[in-house]
Amino acid sequence: MLFKTKSKATTNTVPKPAVEASALESELNYWEQCLSASFGDDGLELAPEQRDRTLVPSLEDIQTIQSKSKANPLVFLSSGMQASVYYLEELKRAGFAPSKFSRVLEFGVGFARILRQFQPLDAELHGCDVTPGVIEWCKGNLGGLGQFLVSDFDPPLPYPDGHFDFIFANSVFTHLQHEQTLAWITELRRVVRKGGAVITTHYDINEHLRGFAASELHRVWAEKGYFEWGDRSVRENNICYSPELLSQIWSEHFEVLERRQYPLEQTHLVCRAL
Fold first, then answer.
1. What is the C-alpha R_g of the chain?
2. Is 37 inside any structural domain?
């Protein structure tokens, strides 16, 4: 008999903190190298603040808008770097030159987890959010990095027409109601310059709707082109569009350049302002 069944090994029931921390350190190092290489292509270097573990919100603050895992500085920083690498690659692939941007806006900035990673750019960094607490935190901790303000739940934004070269919204349009989505698409077109870049993230049907009955999805898809669930309030509402309708509603004001899917991540929609 090769195996005993009466006793169970206990060595792997709980991950060893040192091993887990080592894995997270490795992941952070990997994404830092990727980000450094991406900026390095344009002769730019990372700033020390991009890896500063003291500039991370507390667990209590994090849980106001995100999962508690982001309170771990290693997770907070590596996930922000990962997202930034994706955005930079998408911009370059679409023919944009990030190093030439003058103004960048993160719509729904949160704690600037991603925006701070654009610091090497010679551009003004702006962030807006509907949650006053996160903007207060950004001003108090990252005031030298960019300009932050509280925005309303509905348009307009307090920026001039054509003010930005690049706008991105990470997991924002996943939580808006359909009517709000249409209004904010129009508003983002107003504040981005003609020919400017806009990248937004959206739920992927295969990843986020697999638990729903196929018959129900087909019915809703045919009638509306999108599926909405949860509490109809910001952050608690969820919406997933069919690829066809998603491209259609953005094509009113933008040229849709790419709809890029990532494993275990939201779909990125890359657009150029018409």
1. 20
2. yes
User: How many C-beta neighbours within 10 Å does residue 260 have?
Assistant: 16
Tell me the one-letter amino acid at 143.
G
Sign for the CA dihedral angle at 224, 225, 229, 233 comes to negative
Return mean pLDDT, the chain: 87
Residue whose tokens read 């997991």: 171
pLDDT digits (tens, 9 = 90+) for 185-216: 999 999 999 999 999 999 876 555 555 555 55
Q: What is the pTM (predicted TM-score) of this model?
A: 0.85
Q: Is 1 domain-assigned? A: no
How far is Cα 110 from Cα 175, in angstroms, rounded to an integer?
Answer: 14
Which secondary structure element, helix H or strand E, spans residue 257, and what is its range?
strand 254-260
> 180: burial class by Cβ within 10 Å (0-12, 13-18, 19+)?
middle
User: Residue 106 sits in a domain of what CATH number?
Assistant: 3.40.50.150
130: phi then psi, degrees, rounded to nearest 5: -85, -10
Number of domains making up the chain = 1
What residues make up the domain containing 184?
Answer: 17-273
Tell whether 9 is covered by a domain: no
Q: Does the residue 92 lie in any domain?
A: yes
